[in-house]
Design a protein that fits this description.
This protein is α/β, with parallel strands linked by helices and 299 residues long. The protein folds into 2 domains: 46 residues, no CATH class; 235 residues, Alpha-Beta Complex (Spore Coat Polysaccharide Biosynthesis Protein SpsA, Chain A), CATH 3.90.550. It has 11 helices and 9 strands. The chain is elongated and about 85 Å long. The model has no long low-confidence stretch (mean pLDDT 87).
Length: 299
């Protein structure tokens, strides 16, 4: 790169300094300065070395697969029921051969009675807990008690975290319900669960942002530099519950979505499905219904 070109790729306040540094190094290199000459040779050598491939994880096979589920049973629509049907589909629920725990939001006039909700889950062996509804926290209100129900450090156990998605979405309902339908479909398959032999967590819509970019959440929550947008994910017990801060859940309505980023590195987690536009930053909006196949309208 010519010195003049630095002004095209760097901010003005940095380009001037960079030009001075490069000009000084060039002058010392032309004079045969030993230190600078050796540094230049090292740089040429490093640029000739291809980058090392990422190390593929090899982890014990998962034998027990739990589920922890937050339900917001709104009287205003049937989307929560559609979520529950998707989870309890015979081909999906059979994958969940460990503990099944559901937290039902209660004590709000716009919610169905907990007994109405329990009737859907009891026949499938779910443990049921009730959580005081908190409009500001939503599913975050139940996350810690749900985690505590299944917590252990076994290396052959994993848990699927999920919540009724879309029943409190004012706009983009079609995008939200297609998004939810896809996540149930892609993540409640054996292939997705089996990826946990090569990842600490598995989800969809993996979003990563550059260091220093902290405001990915509308509340300006700061935690990590990645998320599984949508907050449906599997995680390994031996990677999450061995972390000293696994009970540390942000007191924020996006705390569940941000939870794993405070414990795991984005390079150690995998996404089984990425929408168009998630290969860049900022990403496309996952609420765009055009990102999803039309068959997910049957959700």
């Amino acid at each position: 790169m010519r010195l003049a070109q630095l002004h095209g790729v760097l901010p003005d306040h940095e380009a001037g300094t960079a030009v001075e540094i490069v000009a000084t190094l060039r002058e010392r290199l032309q004079r045969g300065d030993k230190v600078v000459t050796e540094f230049a040779q090292i740089c040429k050598h490093l640029y000739a070395i291809p980058p090392s491939p990422p190390v593929e994880l090899s982890l014990p096979r998962i034998r027990l697969r739990n589920v922890i589920y937050h339900v917001y049973p709104s009287k205003n629509n049937d989307i929560w029921r559609r979520n529950v049907r998707a989870l309890l589909h015979p081909d999906r629920v059979k994958l969940l051969n460990g503990r099944r725990v559901v937290a039902i939001a209660v004590a709000s006039p716009d919610l169905e009675s907990p007994r109405t909700v329990e009737k859907l889950f009891r026949p499938h062996g779910f443990e049921v807990m009730q959580i005081q509804n908190c409009p500001n926290l939503r599913e975050v209100a139940s996350l810690r008690p749900l985690l505590e129900r299944v917590a252990n450090t076994r290396d052959d156990e994993a848990t699927f975290y999920v919540h009724t998605k879309g029943n409190s979405t004012g706009d983009n309902v079609k995008g939200a319900t297609r998004w939810a339908a896809l996540m149930y479909d892609k993540l409640l398959q054996r292939d997705a669960a089996d990826l946990l032999t090569r990842a600490h967590a598995v989800g969809t819509h993996k979003m990563v942002w550059p260091d220093g970019e902290h405001n990915q959440y509308p509340t300006r929550l700061q935690r990590g530099n990645w998320m599984f947008a949508g907050t449906f994910f599997w995680f390994r017990h031996d990677q999450v519950f061995t972390h000293p801060r696994w009970r540390d859940i942000p007191f924020d309505r996006y705390g569940a979505e941000a939870y794993l980023a405070g414990l795991l590195n984005h390079g150690d987690v995998k996404s089984v499905w990425q929408p168009a536009g998630f290969d860049r930053y900022p990403t496309s909006s996952p609420y765009d219904p055009n990102l999803y196949p039309i068959e997910y309208d049957e959700f």
